[in-house]
């Protein structure tokens, strides 16, 4: 595949990702932003007064994180406006932390069933863990590792999009071919699938787009490739701070990472 074909592919994929993320974020957050309780889309526990509140406090920052995410992966934006990247990253982090804490309450009060609750608890733990790793690595200046952890983290944020796609497909399937299925069956299967499939896709991307090109370079030259600024995190875990904008975050500007590893430019 030529470089320009690959670039076109990336843009197409990124556009699909961004459009669906922005669409679902706006659609999901709107009823909670205007506090329209009537338009709440999931069943509430009438005995828990703060159930609606926990979902609203979860939905609004989570939607903002979903909205910000795709733009953080665009190399050109990151290079031209490193300060914007840093501030948006901080806002994203705060949103994920708030969204996760509220998700713990929402999952605890959920009347959707034990299996869905377990899926959401696992999702919350993974969401926080990958965020903590992404933060830890960028504080150490390990840009490539930061990118790996952010891909993992955003794949979990994006579970909110795939969950809704699976729900739509599941309901259509139930109405046309599988009338014995209940909505709960579809919801449980969708919640688990959105978690598992997104994790698998993220890992596939990381291995094939980030790690394989590095391994190939090592095989061709017979030696471990000299770390470029962008590789540092993966290869040697070098130190240095990205916080002042002069450290390895600027390594992204040099952008000599493995082919295809940089995302849309
Ligand atoms: C990735 C980690 C996430 C976890 C663990 C999580 C967890 C939850 C839980 C437990 C509920 C209540 C479900 C029920 O009672 O059946 C819920 C609902 C909801 N979540 Fe999330 N969520 C996550 C990400 C997101 C994101 C990124 C968005 C942004 C769109 C979002 C938007 C919503 C909305 C809007 C609801 C209310 C249901 C609806 O109106 O469709 N969540 N979430």
Automatic annotation (TrEMBL):
Transmembrane segments: 53-75, 87-108, 114-132, 153-174, 186-207
Entry keyword annotation includes Metal-binding: no
Disordered: annotated segments: 222-265
Keyword vocabulary terms for this entry: Membrane, Transmembrane, Transmembrane helix
Protein name: DUF2306 domain-containing protein
Taxonomic lineage of the native organism: Bacteria, Bacillati, Actinomycetota, Actinomycetes, Streptosporangiales
């Amino acid at each position: 595949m030529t470089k320009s074909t690959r670039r076109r592919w990336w843009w197409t994929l990124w556009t699909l990702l961004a459009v669906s993320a922005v669409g679902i974020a706006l659609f999901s957050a709107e009823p909670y932003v205007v506090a329209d309780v009537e338009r709440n889309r999931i069943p509430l526990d009438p005995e828990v007064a703060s159930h609606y509140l926990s979902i609203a406090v979860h939905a609004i920052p989570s939607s903002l994180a979903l909205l910000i995410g795709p733009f953080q992966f665009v190399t050109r934006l990151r290079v031209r406006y490193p300060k914007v990247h840093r501030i948006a990253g901080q806002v994203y982090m705060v949103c994920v932390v708030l969204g996760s804490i509220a998700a713990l309450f929402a999952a605890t009060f959920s009347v959707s069933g034990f299996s869905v609750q377990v899926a959401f608890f696992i999702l919350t733990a993974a969401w926080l863990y990958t965020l903590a790793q992404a933060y830890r690595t960028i504080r150490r200046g390990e840009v490539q590792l930061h990118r790996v952890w952010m891909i993992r983290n955003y794949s979990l944020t994006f579970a909110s999009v795939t969950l809704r796609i699976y729900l739509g497909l599941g309901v259509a399937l139930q109405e046309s071919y599988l009338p014995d299925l209940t909505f709960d069956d579809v919801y449980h299967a969708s919640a688990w699938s959105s978690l598992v499939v997104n994790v698998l896709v993220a890992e596939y991307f990381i291995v094939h787009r980030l790690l394989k090109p590095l391994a190939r370079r090592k095989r061709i030259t017979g030696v471990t490739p000299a770390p470029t600024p962008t590789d540092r995190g993966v290869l040697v875990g070098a130190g240095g701070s990205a916080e002042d904008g002069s450290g390895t975050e600027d390594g992204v500007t040099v952008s000599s990472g493995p082919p295809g590893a940089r995302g849309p430019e």
